[in-house]
């Protein structure tokens, strides 16, 4: 009896261990790919948008967060008359620089939290240090931000994958802000001496309308997803939309490969650092066998891309994080945070 009891006890422990392991694995997958449904705040929260990013207002009619993004108990408003009744006020950095003097002297209602928002890299913004000791939370593409809002992410596939490998062009690059001194410009200049690269954008007098970009890139085998600056986690629509959505294999210039691999499968892209020179990269691209090329699409069998393009969704996400954030937090050195972590790639 004692021996049988011990056996049943060990069996029960093994079953419990397997159950705990299963739960932890499920939680890990949810952490990587995100929950099926956003977290629900314990009460109704009001988020005041002090400035619409780039002065481009969006429609807030109805229950936007719930109706569009299934984020409940979260109310967005751009009505500054509701300032004293708002739980959170979010400020976008570009407009803050232009009109921030008034903001710096505003009295804050007890318990109200201020969020500093930007999707730009440290190379593309200035004046961050002016906002030390003011903001409680950050909203950024950076994974260590309080409200992490990437340009896109991988999610489990919701429908069967169908893909057409027919292509007519080798490589394309779409660039809106071109500077010869940029690393990406120098890279393309050298690459173009070995590989036919079709360049689109205002700088090259081949502009694309907003709805033309994806159909155009979809005719190419490769897309040059070259970031305008190299910073930790700064992986923009150039990868998520211009490459993945269009169906071209991205050739990336940005943070190190291991940083990309935190967000996308290692065999979903080509990193320029994998090759000693643009000439060596060209040789790899031109001699790639069809079977090898198809391997860059294996991730599509189980995953698909979710894009974050609506500022309303980004602001609604503040509510999903609200209860898990440090309520007494204040960024005493906002610029230091924005730059220091970047140096720790």
From TrEMBL:
Species annotation: Leptobrachium leishanense
Signal sequence extent: none
Name the record gives this protein: Fucosyltransferase
Catalysed conversion reaction: an N-acetyl-alpha-neuraminyl-(2->3)-beta-D-galactosyl-(1->4)-N-acetyl-beta-D-glucosaminyl derivative + GDP-beta-L-fucose = an alpha-Neu5Ac-(2->3)-beta-D-Gal-(1->4)-[alpha-L-Fuc-(1->3)]-beta-D-GlcNAc derivative + GDP + H(+)
Top-level enzyme category: transferase
Family: Belongs to the glycosyltransferase 10 family.
Protein EC: 2.4.1.-
Entry keyword Transmembrane helix: yes
């Amino acid at each position: 009896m004692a021996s049988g009891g011990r056996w049943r006890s060990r069996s029960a422990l093994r079953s419990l261990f397997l159950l705990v392991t299963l739960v932890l694995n499920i939680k890990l997958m949810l952490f990587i790919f995100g929950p099926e449904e956003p977290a629900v705040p314990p009460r109704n929260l009001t988020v005041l948008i002090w400035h619409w990013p780039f002065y481009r207002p969006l429609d807030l009619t109805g229950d936007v967060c719930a109706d569009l993004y299934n984020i409940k108990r979260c109310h967005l408003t751009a009505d500054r008359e509701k300032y004293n009744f708002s739980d959170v006020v979010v400020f976008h950095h570009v407009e803050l620089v232009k009109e921030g003097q008034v903001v710096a002297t505003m009295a804050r209602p007890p318990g109200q939290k201020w969020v500093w928002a930007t999707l730009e890299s440290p190379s593309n913004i200035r004046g961050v240090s002016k906002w030390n000791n003011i903001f409680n939370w950050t909203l950024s593409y950076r994974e260590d931000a309080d409200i992490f809002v990437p340009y896109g992410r991988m999610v489990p596939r919701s429908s069967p994958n169908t893909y057409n490998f027919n292509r007519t062009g080798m490589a394309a690059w779409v660039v809106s802000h071109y500077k010869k001194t940029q690393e990406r410009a120098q890279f393309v200049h050298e690459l173009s001496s070995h590989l036919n690269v079709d360049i689109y954008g205002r700088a090259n007098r081949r502009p694309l309308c907003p709805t033309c970009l994806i159909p155009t890139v979809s005719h190419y085998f490769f897309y040059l997803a070259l970031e305008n600056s190299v910073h930790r986690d700064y992986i923009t629509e150039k990868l998520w939309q211009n490459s993945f959505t269009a169906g071209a294999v991205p050739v990336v210039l940005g943070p190190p490969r291991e940083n990309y691999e935190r967000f996308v499968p290692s065999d979903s892209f080509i990193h320029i650092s994998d090759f000693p020179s643009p000439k060596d990269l060209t040789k790899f691209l031109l001699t790639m066998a069809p079977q090898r090329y198809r391997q860059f699409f294996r991730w599509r069998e189980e995953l698909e891309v979710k894009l974050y393009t609506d500022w309303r969704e980004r602001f609604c996400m503040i509510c999903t994080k609200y209860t898990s954030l440090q309520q007494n937090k204040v960024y005493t050195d906002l610029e230091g945070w924005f730059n220091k972590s970047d140096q720790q790639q």
